[in-house]
Specification:
Quinone Oxidoreductase, Chain A, domain 1, Rossmann fold, single chain, 2 domains, globular
């Protein structure tokens, strides 16, 4: 079968790899129909050391089950399913707490002999706990929005949930990438009344306004902090959603949050140390967030996608076939594409 591999910075290839095969009785084989490239894939794309052995890529996919193991119940061949970006058993103590990212028997696609999602098929371990059956056919026009439930929209939703967003809330979202825009939509869905989006790419912030942003702040650094405080009020914002993952973004978050407020961060951190001194956490600020337990949210969010209440698939602004995935990486890295959809 064909699959995507990364051999180093700016070196992505689509190559022939061994066919996905059943290994354990809890596995399922899924024929991939839709996949995508994550913003987190761009960090290794821009920095990965050269390797003679390519890394299998991709962790966001929708597909059709070809085969299920003898230990799998509730799923069968022909089911259209969505796969959260990590696999999990959905039954251990962490999963029961809604923390599937810490599943005692879970793992990551593309590692330890498990296929990556940017390929023609995937062996999904712990299939019964991982895969969620979709109430639509594989050619449904809803597929782009349902695909966001694998990661990006659930990540924005998680960011908003951890910040305690509810009706009437005032929120600042840092970042106009796909996660930041998803966080805007999630905050709006949860009832936020004022949503300030910090971003400087006009096409992206325009989509953010469609999703529910009430104001856009293009300035960065201290100038951006002051502009947000002018819009919100001198005390700052009670809830800040940091969706970038860089240290300057975290510093901005602490700059715009009010005393006693919450900074929820979900961007993959590109730093080892951050501001935690007297002028930050000692202001009784809560720092929260982390990897989104997408499996905990998917079933709750599917009805709103199917009913058209939300349309998170608008973050996909260009589609590529599998052969052109290297072009998709390049386009996203060059900021010519917000989020690339891969159609198989």
């Amino acid at each position: 079968m064909q699959a995507t591999l990364m051999y180093g910075a700016h070196d992505v290839r689509v190559e022939t790899v061994p066919d996905a095969q059943m290994v354990e009785s809890a596995d399922a084989l899924v024929r991939v129909t839709r996949a995508c490239i994550c913003g987190s894939d761009l960090w290794p794309y821009n920095s990965m050391p050269k390797s003679d052995v390519g890394n299998r890529m991709g962790h966001e996919f929708i597909g059709v089950i070809d085969e299920v193991g003898s230990a799998v119940s509730g799923l069968k061949s022909g089911d259209v399913v969505v796969a959260p970006f990590l696999w999990s058993d959905n039954s251990c103590d962490f999963c029961r707490e809604g923390l599937h990212t810490s599943c005692r028997h879970g793992g990551r696609y593309g590692f330890d002999g498990v296929d990556g999602g940017q390929g023609e098929a995937v062996r999904v371990p712990e299939a019964q706990g991982t895969l969620v059956k979709l109430p639509v056919g594989e050619d449904s026009a809803l597929m782009p929005s349902l695909l966001t439930l694998t990661d990006v929209f659930c990540t924005g939703h998680h960011c908003a949930i951890k910040a305690g967003i509810g009706p009437g809330a005032t929120v600042t979202v840092i970042g106009d990438g796909a996660v930041g825009l998803s966080a805007v939509l999630a905050a709006k869905r949860l009832g936020a009344e004022q949503i300030v989006l910090m971003g400087r790419h006009a096409d992206r912030t325009e989509l953010g306004q469609q999703f529910g942003a009430t104001e856009v702040v293009a300035e960065r650094g201290e100038e951006g902090v002051q502009r947000v405080r002018e819009l919100i009020g001198d005390d700052g914002t009670r809830a800040v959603l940091e969706c970038v993952g860089t240290k300057p973004a975290l510093e901005t978050a602490f700059g715009v949050v009010r005393d006693g407020g919450v900074v929820s961060r979900v961007g993959v951190p590109q730093y080892e140390e951050g501001p935690i001194g007297l002028d930050t956490l000692m202001r009784n600020i809560t720092l929260t967030g982390g990897a989104a337990p997408a499996r905990a949210y998917i079933e709750e969010l599917i009805p709103d996608v199917v009913d058209g209440v939300i349309e998170p698939g608008k973050v996909f602004d260009k589609a590529f076939d599998l052969d052109h995935v290297p072009d998709a990486y390049r386009a996203m890295a060059d900021r010519k594409v917000l989020k690339a959809l891969v159609q198989l």
